[in-house]
Design goal:
This is ABC transporter ATP-binding protein. The chain is an alpha+beta fold. The protein has helices spanning about 40-50, 90-100, 105-120, 135-150, 165-185, 195-200, 220-225, 230-235, 345-350; strands at about 5-15, 15-25, 30-35, 55-60, 65, 75-80, 155-160, 185-190, 205-210, 210-215, 240-245, 250, 265-270, 275-280, 285-290, 295-305, 310-315, 325-330, 335, 340-345. The protein folds into two domains: about 5-225, 3-Layer(aba) Sandwich (Rossmann fold), CATH 3.40.50; about 235-350, Nucleic acid-binding proteins (OB fold (Dihydrolipoamide Acetyltransferase, E2P), Beta Barrel), CATH 2.40.50. The strands form four sheets. It has a six-stranded mixed beta sheet with strand order 6-7-8-3-9-10, with helices on both faces. The chain has a five-stranded antiparallel beta sheet with strand order 12-11-13-19-20.
Length: about 350
């Protein structure tokens, strides 16, 4: 196990900063997910930790040792890339053994370690297979074994499942989490998939434009987002613009007491916090679409001002497209200039992390 300390790290390409003044500490055996949209600096940061990019500013320390300027082969890290990066002219055994041979280890030790690594990733009898004979998921297991066989202190995973189908991604991420916990290896996992981050991480680092938006455990990230960006990026969220006057939100459908200074406000409400009931007044809202996900339905609702909301209802609910409805909310967040200014008690207490639908 190992402790990782990133202090004030920045990386610029010309006049553009991919990562800006980033700091983070990762504890022994912790699995931290770097989560954010494309271009947020996740992979650049991971490559700097692995030694494939050199920071413009700042330092990176592993177990108190400064590794900022060390090349990848001199760092106690192992990296698994999205593209697998396997050598197709070698069989599975040779791919995994390659790094050990560079270290000039005895043949018997190499064989033992490779066989142990293959067993660890569930490919015990695949050593003589050609890489081209493997499925995408099997290739990713080989890439993982090739990193683990070197016994790194820190494992770096750069969107390793992005090219795989949904069911395979889910299975492999469970396997990776089991292996990580079994070995107790400190791990950083880059993803833009919120479901992967919520399923895998001890803590999530939400990144935006090379900076940190919020760092917290998955349940806190979901239930207590500190910025509007985090609220919208994790799970599904409805946003409604309004005003506060004398401590009251003036939106015609959502008149909440919000004890902050008067001014503009962005209301944020989870679909599971919205209740939908039929209404006779056409000014309320119109159901645009109902999508059945089996365990629940998602109702798309068009408001008079053009805003579209999503509400989660029970699978047996009789709401239909074209109906006039009156939505109400049991819990909400209020943001101003991207920062959280108020959160109702129900928003924190009632919001589950699942399901993460994509309707």
């Amino acid at each position: 196990m190992a402790h990782l300390a990133i202090e004030g790290v920045s990386k610029s390409f010309g006049h553009t900063f991919a990562v800006s003044d980033f700091s983070l500490e990762v504890g022994d055996g912790e699995l931290v997910c770097l989560l954010g949209p494309s271009g947020s600096g996740k992979s650049t940061l991971l490559r700097m930790i692995g030694g494939f990019e050199r920071p413009t500013d700042g330092s990176i320390r592993i177990d108190a040792r400064d590794v900022t300027t060390l090349p990848p082969e001199r760092r106690p890290t192992g990296m698994v890339f999205q593209s697998h990066a396997l050598w197709t002219h070698m069989d599975v055994f040779s791919n995994i053994a390659f790094g050990l041979k560079l270290r000039r280890l005895p043949k018997a030790e190499i064989r033992e370690r490779v066989e142990n690594a293959l067993a660890l990733v569930g490919l015990a009898d695949y050593g003589k297979r050609a890489v081209t004979q493997l499925s995408g998921g099997q290739q990713q297991r080989v890439a993982l074994a090739r990193s683990l066989v070197l016994e790194p202190k820190i494992l770096l995973l750069d969107e390793p499942f992005a090219s795989l189908d949904q069911h395979l991604r889910e299975r492999l991420r469970e396997e990776v989490r089991d292996i990580q916990q079994r070995l107790g290896i400190t791990t950083l996992f880059v993803t833009h998939g919120q479901d992967e981050a919520l399923a895998l991480a001890d803590r999530i680092v939400v990144m935006r434009d090379g900076r940190t938006e919020q760092v917290a455990p998955p349940s806190v990230i979901y239930r207590e987002p500190q910025t509007a960006f985090v609220a919208g990026f994790i799970g599904s969220m409805n946003f409604v613009e309004s005003e506060i006057r004398d401590g009251i939100c003036t939106h015609p459908l959502f008149s909440f007491s919000i004890p902050v200074a008067d001014g503009p406000v962005m209301l944020a409400m989870r679909p599971e916090a919205l209740t939908v009931r039929p209404a006779s007044r056409s000014a309320d809202a119109i159901v645009h679409r109902v999508t059945d996900f089996g365990m629940h339905k998602i109702v798309d609702i068009d408001l008079a001002d053009g805003t579209r909301l999503k509400a989660m209802v029970a699978p047996g609910d009789m709401i239909r497209a074209g109906m006039t409805v009156a939505p109400s909310c049991s819990g909400f967040f209020a943001f101003r200039d991207n920062a959280l200014i108020h959160q109702s008690a129900a928003a924190q207490a009632a919001a589950p992390m699942q399901p993460l639908y994509t309707a």
